[in-house]
């Protein structure tokens, strides 16, 4: 399920960077997180080996997915967990709604789950008259503001503390103008404790599901997933099928990589291993496809399913840092989102693979070694082949290939270009030329390299 | 076809040729001169506190001091006092006012300062999350170097629930400012028995 945004990444990014100090702050804040990641990675001499193991375990998982899922289901059922399957987001939402109705519950808390964002669960349940309270602090902030998370690990990273203070003043009655993060967090703690204690049903995501045990692991720093899951009498965990790993011992590899890649912490505060419901509790798992089996069949793109949602590629990306998560108009933004979302809906997300400089930094920090920048490049080709690339871009590419294929035309075009930039600068320094936006045009050299070479060779 | 059959058929048709699992060579990973001092250093860096104690009586004294100060404490360590048989089935409303909980941890991990707690150690799954403050006792001999070593010893699914706990609860969701005490414990004191 994917809704068509009424803006492209480039248009939204233009709005984002209109506020230059704020753009710089966003850029610096995420770079700071990237630096913490580097420090954590450098503390382990085996870091590169760990990435390779993680990548290989994930590929083994993708190549044995059918069997691993069958094993997982069998073991989970033996543990007393109810297993549900959903072909798409709509089925996922309906399964959850049915559990809510069957048990006649009203008070529902949810910890962070990008899958439920992908499936637009909150909107679906709101339409049915069911209220869900997001309990991750960052997600609660954006929920109050009726916004989407702008980052998969740091949902409110686009906001400053003044924004949070205003939001909490409005919704929680905190002191006006008190911007102290400690004070604001304390207010949210009090507010959400009441919600946890009263909750009847808790929804969580899944970081890893283990085929051999039929259990699953959820990682948080705040403890919100556990507060919900252990307080409520019903726990629903939602997962895309690619969260499967074969064995519990493989958690050793992934838990070493996940938090270090995400925030530079050696591990998250809570790495919770659920395998059986507690006495008197219902535990459900919803396994979702929503386009993943199709992506599994695309040879060039299947490795994107290795992703463990650490967001290292977001924090390092020069485009993400300077355009903000909302510009990507999808649940998962950043470089990884730009290779996952065209599979969900190519038409709606045809702009995303172009939101990159192809610098390759994303691939270099990815803990499971996904070749993200290469897949971005391949998606551009798919999108152009389908006739979906922006018209201006297609025309420009056609023009460029004609020019580059004919040396005489190339030489003449070069001469004309240099003359225009020198004598008629207003022809390029205007809003019609997308390369002039936010950039200065270079000074035109006197002659081309070829002319210079020929002249100097003769001397 | 049911959703299950549709999904599994799609996966069967599309999954690539099987590739073997890698061999995880634990001898190739980091080693520390002292797992104990590495554990302490990392724990302090993630907001926890470590102290060495010489025996169970020190914990008994701490519990007595808490009680004398009028605090609501819950003990889940059989070595220091009997465990309230009602604890296992207490609900969130009944646990909400617990000021300090005393728990006994299993394996601890030097590289990240985490401690394994399973359901037996927690007695009640909600206890280590809902208590305002936590005191966890571990034995120095149970500290291993890395998560690989920990999983060799922890059979993570022996009981219905278990976790690696690393420090007090925290968040940096407001402008990346670290705040200790998000939804879970506001502090973690780890007492290490030699």
Describe the structure.
- The complex is a heterodimer of chains A (459) and B (194).
- With 459 residues, chain A is of the alpha/beta class.
- Chain A is built from 21 helices and ten strands.
- The mean pLDDT of chain A is 94.
- Chain B has 194 residues and is α/β, with parallel strands linked by helices.
- In chain B, the strands form three sheets. A five-stranded parallel sheet of chain B has the order 1-11-6-3-2, sandwiched between helices. In chain B, strands 7-4-5-8 form a four-stranded mixed sheet.
- Chain B is globular and about 65 Å long.
- Chains A and B meet through helix 2, helix 3, helix 4, helix 8 and helix 10 of A and helix 1, helix 7, strand 8 and strand 9 of B.
- Strand 9 of chain A pairs antiparallel with strand 8 of chain B, so a sheet runs across the interface.
Helix and strand sequence of chain B = HHEHEHEEEHHEEHEEEE
**Distance separating the two termini of chain B:** 60 Å
Give me the secondary-structure category of chain B: alpha/beta
In CATH terms, the superfamily of the domain at 44-290 in chain A is NagB/RpiA/CoA transferase-like
Shape of chain A, please?
globular
Mean pLDDT of chain A: 94
Q: In order across it, which strands form the biggest sheet of chain A?
A: 1-10-7-4-2-3
**Helix content range of the residues of chain B, please?**
25-40%
CATH fold type of chain B? Rossmann fold
The main sheet of chain A comes to: 6 strands, parallel
Total strand count of chain A, please?
A: 10
Question: Could you tell me the number of beta strands of chain B?
Answer: 11
In the CATH hierarchy, the architecture of chain B is 3-Layer(aba) Sandwich
Largest interface: A-B, 95 and 73 residues
Main sheet strand line-up of chain B: 1-11-6-3-2
């Amino acid at each position: 399920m994917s809704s068509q945004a009424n803006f492209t990444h480039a248009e939204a990014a233009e709005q984002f960077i209109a506020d230059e100090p704020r753009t710089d702050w966003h850029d610096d804040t995420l770079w700071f997180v990237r630096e913490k990641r580097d420090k954590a990675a450098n503390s382990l001499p085996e870091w590169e080996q760990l990435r390779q193991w993680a990548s290989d375990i994930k590929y083994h998982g993708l190549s044995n997915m059918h069997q691993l899922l069958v094993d997982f289901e069998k073991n989970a059922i033996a543990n007393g967990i109810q297993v549900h399957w959903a072909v798409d987001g709509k089925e996922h939402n309906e399964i959850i709604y049915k559990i809510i109705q069957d048990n006649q519950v009203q008070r529902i808390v949810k910890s962070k789950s990008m899958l439920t964002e992908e499936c637009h669960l909150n909107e679906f349940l709101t339409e049915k008259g069911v209220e869900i309270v997001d309990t991750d602090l960052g997600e609660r902030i954006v929920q109050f503001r009726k916004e989407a998370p702008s980052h998969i690990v740091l949902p409110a990273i686009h906001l400053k503390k003044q924004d949070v203070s205003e939001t909490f003043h409005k919704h929680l009655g905190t002191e006006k103008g008190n911007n102290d993060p400690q004070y604001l967090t304390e207010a949210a703690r009090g507010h959400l404790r009441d919600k946890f204690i009263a909750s009847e049903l808790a929804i969580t995501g899944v970081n890893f599901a283990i085929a051999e045990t039929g259990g699953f692991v959820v990682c948080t720093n705040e403890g919100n997933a556990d507060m919900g899951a252990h307080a409520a009498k019903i726990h629903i965990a939602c997962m895309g099928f690619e969260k499967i790993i074969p064995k519990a011992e493989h958690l050793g590899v992934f838990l070493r990589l996940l938090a270090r890649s995400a925030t530079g912490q050696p591990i998250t505060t809570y790495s919770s291993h659920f395998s059986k419901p507690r006495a008197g509790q219902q535990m459900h798992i919803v396994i979702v496809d929503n386009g993943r089996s199709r992506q599994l069949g695309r040879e060039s793109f299947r490795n994107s399913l290795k992703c463990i949602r650490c967001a290292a590629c977001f924090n390092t990306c020069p485009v993400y840092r300077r355009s903000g998560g909302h510009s990507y108009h999808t649940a998962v933004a950043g470089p990884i989102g730009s290779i996952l979302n065209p599979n969900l809906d190519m038409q709606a997300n045809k702009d995303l693979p172009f939101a990159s400089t192809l610098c390759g930094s994303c691939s270099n920090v990815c803990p499971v070694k996904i070749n993200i920048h290469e897949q971005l490049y391949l998606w551009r080709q798919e999108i152009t082949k389908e006739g979906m690339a922006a018209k201006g871009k297609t025309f420009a590419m056609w023009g460029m290939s004609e020019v580059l294929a004919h040396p005489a035309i190339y030489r003449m075009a070069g001469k004309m270009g240099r003359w225009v930039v020198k004598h008629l600068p207003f022809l390029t320094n205007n809003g019609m030329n997308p390369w002039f936006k936010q950039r200065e045009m270079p000074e035109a050299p006197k002659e081309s390299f070829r002319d210079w070479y020929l002249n100097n060779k003769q001397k | 076809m049911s959703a299950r059959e549709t999904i599994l058929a799609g996966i069967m048709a599309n999954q690539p040729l099987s590739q073997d699992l890698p061999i995880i060579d634990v001898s190739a990973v980091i080693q520390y001169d002292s797992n104990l001092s590495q554990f302490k250093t990392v724990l302090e860096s993630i907001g926890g506190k470590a102290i060495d104690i010489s025996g169970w009586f020190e914990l008994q004294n701490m519990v007595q001091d808490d009680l004398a100060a009028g605090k609501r404490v819950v003990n889940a360590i059989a070595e220091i006092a009997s465990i309230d048989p009602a604890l296992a089935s207490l609900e969130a409303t009944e646990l909400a006012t617990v000021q300090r909980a005393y728990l006994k941890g299993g394996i601890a991990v030097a590289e990240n300062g985490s401690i394994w707690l399973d359901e037996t150690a927690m007695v009640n799954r909600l206890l280590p999350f809902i208590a305002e403050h936590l005191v966890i006792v571990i034995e120095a001999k149970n500290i291993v170097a890395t998560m690989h070593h920990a999983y060799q010893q922890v059979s993570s699914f022996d009981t219905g629930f278990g976790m690696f706990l690393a420090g007090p609860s925290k968040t940096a969701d407001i402008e990346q400012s670290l705040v200790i005490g998000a939804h879970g414990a506001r502090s973690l004191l780890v007492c290490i028995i030699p």
